[in-house]
From TrEMBL:
PANTHER family: PARTNER OF PAIRED, ISOFORM B, PARTNER OF PAIRED, ISOFORM B-RELATED. One of its GO terms (cellular component) is SCF ubiquitin ligase complex. This is Uncharacterized protein. One of its GO terms (biological process) is SCF-dependent proteasomal ubiquitin-dependent protein catabolic process. InterPro entries: LRR_dom_sf.
Length: 459
């Protein structure tokens, strides 16, 4: 379908004719395009709106019979719009989707945000519900809001019972503690990011998902702690024993609290602990003999995690006990982590040879790290990690006359024109070419261009 010249959307006549064939639709906003979609686009199975507003509701209602995946996000400027956001109507429309299996809500005010007048929002809500002197009109409005809130929550959790994947980001939804007997049998993937509920409420909700396999919890509250008594009372090991993938990225809990949480999830195979306090105690539990993670953990991402509590060689020796590991991430994810003093050196002299037991390793990530990993370490890795296929990180380059000569004789030699037109040796390019030819099955990430350190060039 040809795009129209004025708005980038397909020609209306063609869209009206073929719109019913569209199955997946993603857009930023429907503010200026709703008239193109209704009623032509009526058999969607996937809908994603980056800036959800009132104009999204008609399209959602039109496709309730076929939708299987819904992603609704509200941008920050949308939260201050003058028109009230019909939360109950959105939740009711989502509830009427019989085939819905995946739902993602971002900044979606499920509870306590039903505006009574333009621009009022939560301020009017709080004034009506908690005012010491309430007029009959405000009392009636408050009662109506409470009824709508309860109805919205009821419809939402009735919908969750049918879902296989649920993601909630920055929502004020109250988790169903008063309905602890409810069990969400179909839910397999759950993501709770910056929700208003505390750790206890979130973990109790997790405990009601008996067949959960993928869990992500992210809460950036440094002053809130994870109570071990709550963990024992919820008993994740028995209430949801099928969790195999755990994402704790950016979770602000202490090292010992991470260890306690891991002890409740004995069947983990994938652990993402980026930017967490994961350190000595957590690692000690993971590799301990009483932990089943030692023999079954396949992915361990410690990008920018705290790893300074243990001596360097001892840390690498502990990691070597994870013999089934396939993906290992030890680096950072920004320049701010490059020069941290607690980063591992990753040289043979500092204990890299302790990792020779990782025979199943496929991906090794040490990007944005201050390390001493050079060609000698790369050759050691290739000799012992036969299954390695991806290397992500900067490899130090040193001038090697034999290597440069071999590469030059095969063509594409390590020469380049300098500023004055003179031929100068390109050590970085020669090293990259050498690695690609020496290990053709291994993908060296584009960020691994060699860094030549003159002070370490052999004489």
């Amino acid at each position: 379908m040809a795009d129209s010249s004025h708005n980038g959307f397909p020609d209306w006549a063609l869209f009206k004719k073929y719109g019913h064939l569209v199955r997946s639709f993603t857009c930023d906003s429907l503010q200026y395009s709703g008239h193109h979609l209704l009623p032509a686009c009526c058999q969607l199975t996937e809908l994603e709106v980056q800036d959800c507003a009132n104009d999204t509701l008609p399209l959602l209602r039109l496709n309730t019979a076929t939708l299987a995946s819904v992603v609704l996000k509200r941008k920050s400027h949308s939260l201050e719009k003058s028109r009230p956001f019909p939360v109950l109507e959105f939740v009711r429309a989502i509830h009427e989707c019989p085939s819905l299996t995946r739902l993602q809500l971002v900044d979606f005010p499920i509870e306590g945000k039903l505006e009574l007048e333009p621009g009022g929002g939560a301020v009017i809500d709080r004034r009506l519900r908690f005012s010491a002197v309430a007029t009959p009109e405000s009392a009636a409005a408050s009662a109506a809001m409470e009824a709508d809130r309860q109805r919205t929550t009821q419809l939402f959790y009735d919908t969750v019972r049918r879902l296989e994947s649920l993601s909630i980001t920055r929502s004020n939804i109250r988790l169903p503690l008063d309905r602890s007997t409810d069990v969400f049998y179909r839910l397999r993937r759950l993501s709770l990011i910056e929700c208003t509920s505390n750790y206890r409420e979130q973990l109790q909700f997790v405990g009601q998902c008996q067949y959960l396999t993928h869990l992500k919890i992210q809460l950036n509250r440094r002053n809130e702690r994870l109570d071990p008594e709550d963990l024992d009372a919820i008993g994740l090991a028995t209430s949801c024993p099928r969790i195999t993938h755990l994402n704790l990225a950016y979770l602000k809990i202490q090292d010992q609290e991470i260890a306690m949480l891991l002890s409740q999830l004995p069947n983990l195979t994938d652990l993402d602990a980026q930017w967490t306090e994961f350190a000595g105690r957590s690692l000690e539990y993971v590799v301990s003999r009483e932990s089943r993670l030692r023999e079954q953990l396949q992915t361990l991402d410690l990008t920018a995690a705290k790893m300074a509590d243990s001596p360097l060689i001892q840390t690498l020796f502990q990691l070597s006990k994870l013999t089934e590991l396939r993906v290992l991430g030890l680096g950072g994810n920004s320049l701010s982590t490059w020069f941290r003093i607690e980063t591992l050196e990753l040289s043979l002299a500092s204990g890299l040879s302790e990792l020779y037991r990782l025979k199943e390793l496929r991906v090794f990530n040490f990007s944005y790290m201050c390390h001493d990993l050079g060609m000698e370490e790369v050759e050691y890795m290739m000799r012992h990690w036969k299954n390695l296929r991806t290397v992500i990180g900067t490899i130090h380059g040193y001038r090697d006359a034999n290597r440069d000569k071999a590469v030059s004789e095969e063509g594409d030699g390590p020469w380049r024109l300098g500023n004055a037109g003179a031929r100068t040796r390109n050590t970085s390019g020669g090293q990259d070419l050498y690695m690609r030819r020496q290990w053709p099955l291994v993908q060296f990430n584009a960020s691994t261009h060699a860094v030549v350190l003159p002070e370490m060039v052999p004489v």
